[in-house]
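Retro notes (design track)

What went well: tokenization of the new backbones is finally stable.
What didn't: we kept losing track of which sequence belonged to which structure.
Fix going forward: every design gets posted as structure first, then sequence, in one message. First example under the new rule, 354 residues:
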């Protein structure tokens, strides 16, 4: 066989070309000619292109079939678990009649969207963990805290606190870490509004019909009172029982702020409050309304001066109510106010039931 015969076979698309030519060329030791011929055939033959297209379509069809099968069997398993045994026949008939190709086409966008949302959520969580870990690490190095604490534990607690803002409920480990910052808060009667009566132990405040003596250190607009001891550094936590009170507020107050004006952040006060019996909000103008589901019987107040964090918790369920950023440039004091004859009381820290 000569070269003219080889090219003639290429033009005629002989079905026995591959095997015959390769055998003869190999027998002559001319594999270079064979490779040249094969390349020529790939470049010139439309059948090869068609074969590639068919292969691609086959791969797409295979992937679609796998997705469909996985989703179908997953749905079947889930549904079977919630159906009674005597309904298995009805379920089988229902599946065979409804899972047509058109139904799958309708379901497919939803499946893809769910997968995308899951990926986005995972990416957000990983980003939060990375940023929080870096921030905590920088804080520890800045304050030279490495010899004083287990840095891994501090970072883990801070990261879990960050993530739990989405979940609302605080993990038990972090919750105990927060409560470890508990402070013995005592009310200062010299700062109390004249209509507010403070108990002898300084742990309870209640609206009174007998006015107290006036003083320049007292609140004059809001029926409020401050704690005796202020803070400008460190972590602090306290709990207040408000279960029977329908009109109360709990938070912190800047020491130099005026006490003859309304309580607002711009006036040096940060607090959550219950008002008009059913309203629950953070004190801003206008008010930042909060969910009724977060209305507590016992309020936990947590302050981290170095981090500029003020957080309020529903203690009985370990739920985060609200978090605000505060710059602690001077002393701040625990703040309490009420316009109800039912008292509000400072109470010992409630141990977790979770």
């Amino acid at each position: 066989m000569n070269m003219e015969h080889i090219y003639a076979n290429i033009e005629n698309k002989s079905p026995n070309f591959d095997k015959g030519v390769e055998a003869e060329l190999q027998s002559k030791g001319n594999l270079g000619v064979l490779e040249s011929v094969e390349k020529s055939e790939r470049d010139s033959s439309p059948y090869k292109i068609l074969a590639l297209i068919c292969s691609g379509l086959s791969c797409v069809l295979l992937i679609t079939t796998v997705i469909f099968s996985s989703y179908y069997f997953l749905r079947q398993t889930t549904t079977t678990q919630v159906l009674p045994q005597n309904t298995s026949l009805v379920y089988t008939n229902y599946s065979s009649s409804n899972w047509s190709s058109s139904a799958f086409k309708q379901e497919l966008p939803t499946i893809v969207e769910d997968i995308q949302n899951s990926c986005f959520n995972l990416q957000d969580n990983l980003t939060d963990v990375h940023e929080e870990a870096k921030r905590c690490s920088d804080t520890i190095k800045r304050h030279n805290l490495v010899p004083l604490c287990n840095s891994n534990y501090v970072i883990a607690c801070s990261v879990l606190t960050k993530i739990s803002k989405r979940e609302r409920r605080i993990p038990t480990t972090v919750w105990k870490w927060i409560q470890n910052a508990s402070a013995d808060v005592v009310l200062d009667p010299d700062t109390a509004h004249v209509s507010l009566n403070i108990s002898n132990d300084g742990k309870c405040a209640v609206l009174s019909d007998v006015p107290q003596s006036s003083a320049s250190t007292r609140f004059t607009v809001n029926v409020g009172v401050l704690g005796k001891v202020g803070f400008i550094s460190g972590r602090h936590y306290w709990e207040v029982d408000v279960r029977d009170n329908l009109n109360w507020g709990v938070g912190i107050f800047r020491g130099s702020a005026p006490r003859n004006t309304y309580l607002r952040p711009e006036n040096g006060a940060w607090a959550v409050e219950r008002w008009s019996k059913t309203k629950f909000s953070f004190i801003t103008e206008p008010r930042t309304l909060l969910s009724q589901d977060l209305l507590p019987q016992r309020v936990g107040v947590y302050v981290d001066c170095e981090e500029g964090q003020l957080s309020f918790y529903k203690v009985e369920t370990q739920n985060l109510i609200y978090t605000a950023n505060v710059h602690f440039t001077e002393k701040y004091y625990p703040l309490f106010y009420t316009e109800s004859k039912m008292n509000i009381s400072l109470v010992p820290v409630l141990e977790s039931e979770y």
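Added context from the reviewer: The radius of gyration is 37 Å.
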